[in-house]
Amino acid sequence: METFSLLLGGFADALTPMNLLWCLIGVVLGTAVGVLPGLGSAMAVALLVPVTFTLDPTGAFIMFAGVYFGGQFGGSTTAILLNTPGQSSSLVTSFEGYQMAKRGRAPQALATSVLGSFLSSIAAVTLVSFFAPAMVDLAVNFGPAEYFALAVFAFLATSAVVSGDALRGLVSLGIGLALAMVGIDEQSGAVRLTLGSSQLLDGVSIVVITVGLLAIGEVLHVASTAGSRPATGTIASGRPWMSRDDLSRSWRPWIRGTILGLPFGAIPAGGSEIPTFLSYGAEKHLAARRGRSEFGTGAIEGVAGPEAANNATVATSLVPLLGLGLPTSATAAIMLGAFQQYGIQPGPLLFTEEADLVWALLASLFVGSVMLLVLNLPFAPVWAKLLRIPSNYLYAGIVVFATLGVYAAKSSLTDVVLLYVIGALGFVLRRHGFPIAPVLIGAILGPLAESELRRALAISQGDIGILFDSPVALALYGIIGVAIVLKLIHVARTRAARARPAPQLDD
After folding, report:
1. If 339 and its partner were Cys, which of 278, 344, 411, 486 is the partner (CB 3.0–4.6 Å)?
2. Per the database record, which ranges form the DUF112 domain (predicted)?
3. pLDDT in the model for residue 137
4. Which residues contact 25 (CB under 8 A, 6 or more apart)?
């Protein structure tokens, strides 16, 4: 009953006129960046952070959450109509969604995507609202050793698992950690990695890092590969609708996709890409067993399941973000940085120290999901027209907005210079296939890992054994060890298979 009363209080805050406005702005912006390929909700939140410091924290985070949710909803529109996913999480949707569109079934594909996203989001937010406090109660017992182990787990999981290429992921992580160390060390007073520049003594703002890597880096990458060409025309979308047969084929994949997606948002090695592939594979296997598979030619199950899995991860990713201070995606990492900019530290005490903000945020997720249903179901053809904006105008606007936003945050020309330097770094990383997410994770979680390691060693008077005294820490290190061993075995087998000579055919 206490959870009900707290959630009702959250609705009372979320349904105020101003917070409803921020929620609406967030879901509209999120849907827009989700529709436009290459942008993504992470870039949108990064661009908004420097211009929202004058807002009330509750309103700002309601808007950020709206952008996060909206990006997942909108990403499927381009996947279905253009075969170009607006976000990487919508990649699997394009497999069957675009085939449906080519067969004249774009309205059905859009409808099952939007309805599946809505239902899975509502289910996930409900679970988060009622079970996140229980998880936070367990997290209260976490000490410095456990938090350091969680940070290491998040580092390696993001670098090696989510990024795909372990070596490139670790290099990106190292770059992020190096950026986090720039400036004066608060505990020892030592000057680190400033290159003799007094302007860097305060360190590099997380806002500059995120906007530079995601916005400026992406613009430079697009400019180098695509030039200033207008967007491609789209397949006619029509008004989304579903027949009774479409609904009967979609509701089970919606449930299965939601169940698959829920746990992946809550773990540091999660993300929405993995469960979407799992859902697609499961639905394809089940359709083959039934003997009426349309996979490869436009199966509606191949859109329903992955889209439900995709959106289920978004709400559950807020559990480790709010309760443990650990982000599981680039967007969540930027939201963590925004919390810190407001002087708020996510963690076990957040639900008591900032209860009004947390419950208003959770309530706004229900409101935002309804808004997204209204925005996406009848207006998908309108969002599709955003694809007709010439890319040179679109990205020029992003550069101007990013520059003004970073300058307005501190009125510092040094930050603007750093913005473009880090943007150039982001361009180089993209050009050579290095992932961006580990850089963000390292830059934001690096200070947390360092401070918790120092706290643990201070408590034990320098005895490193304290890092391995906790069962939770040992379990996390054990998972890391098993993952490394399995990775090495896989690499060894791959090399052995390549080195094995091909069989000779007898004459």
Report:
1. 344
2. 20-440
3. 60
4. 63, 66
- Domains of the chain: total: 1
User: Structural domain of residue 208, as residue ranges?
Assistant: 2-497
CA dihedral (447, 176, 203, 318) positive or negative: negative
Q: What is the DSSP track for 128-174?
A: HHHHHHHHHHHHTT--HHHHHHHHHHHHHIIIIIISS-HHHHHHHHH
**Residue 111, domain member (yes or no):** yes
Angle between helices 91-102 and 273-290 (to 10 degrees): 50
> To the nearest 10°, the Cα dihedral for 189, 195, 200, 203?
-60
Q: What is the mean pLDDT of the chain?
A: 77
309 within domain boundaries: yes
DSSP tag of 504: P
Distance of CA 411 to the CA centre of its chain: 29
Asked whether residue 505 is domain-assigned, the answer is no
pLDDT digits (tens, 9 = 90+) for 424-457: 998 999 888 888 878 877 887 788 788 888 888 8
Full-model pTM: 0.64
Lowest-confidence region among 119-123, 136-140, 338-342, 489-493:
136-140
295 CB-near residues (< 8 Å, 6+ apart) = 96, 283, 284, 287, 288, 301, 302
Judged against a pLDDT cut of 70, whether residue 362 lies above it is answered with yes
Residue 124 confidence (pLDDT) above 70: yes
